[in-house]
Amino acid sequence: MANVRIAGVCGSLRDDSTTRIALERALEAAARTGSDTTTELVDLREHDLPTFDADRDRSAAGDADTLAARIRAADAVLLGSPMYHGSYSSPLKTALDYCGFDEFQGKTVGLLAVSGGAFPVAALEHLRSVCRALNAWVIPHEAAVPRSGSAFEDGAFVDPDLEERVATLGVRAVQYATIEPDPDSFESDQNVGAEGK
């Protein structure tokens, strides 16, 4: 695997975001997999993204074109979000609304969610559903950081097992960045499932 590019999109706007800390840890692990791996934190605080309006062209919507180009240029994307009201954050929703098949179809995507309470399973499920609608290939391994108020101390993970799970997400993003979601095989023309039955 040469020149693998991993982008991590942080869906939290907080200055002291635990989502950003966890996403940065996943990107660090991805970068350590090889000298040909480059990572980039796509911090949504740095982008002017107005609420999505389907009647407005993306080129006229603040930094939406720039954001989409950064995601499109990546071989794999990590989506990180805090869980708000049982789902993922509105800044990340807006960012994803400005993207489409050009940015995500066939692309490897890893999911990370953080919550102040119990496991943020619903946020992960909602993100997986959106990625599936965009024909992305979502890594089966996902990272959930519950009880974020006590999960970090001075910007570092308290639990090494939890840190390892987050780091593994970054490693998997590199490992599966060039996966072929629908590879050909010598029987591919016969593998039609229930078609015609």
Automatic annotation (TrEMBL):
GO cellular component: cytosol
Residues in NADPH-dependent FMN reductase-like domain copies: 5-146
Cofactor: [4Fe-4S] cluster
Superkingdom, natural source: Archaea
Cited Gene3D superfamilies: 3.40.50.360
SUPFAM superfamilies assigned: Flavoproteins
InterPro entries: Flavoprotein-like_sf, FMN_Rdtase-like_dom, NAD(P)H-dep_reductase
Family annotation (Pfam families): FMN_red
GO molecular function: FMN binding; oxidoreductase activity
Protein family membership: Belongs to the SsuE family. Isf subfamily.
Protein name in the entry: NADPH-dependent FMN reductase
Organism (species): Natronobacterium lacisalsi AJ5
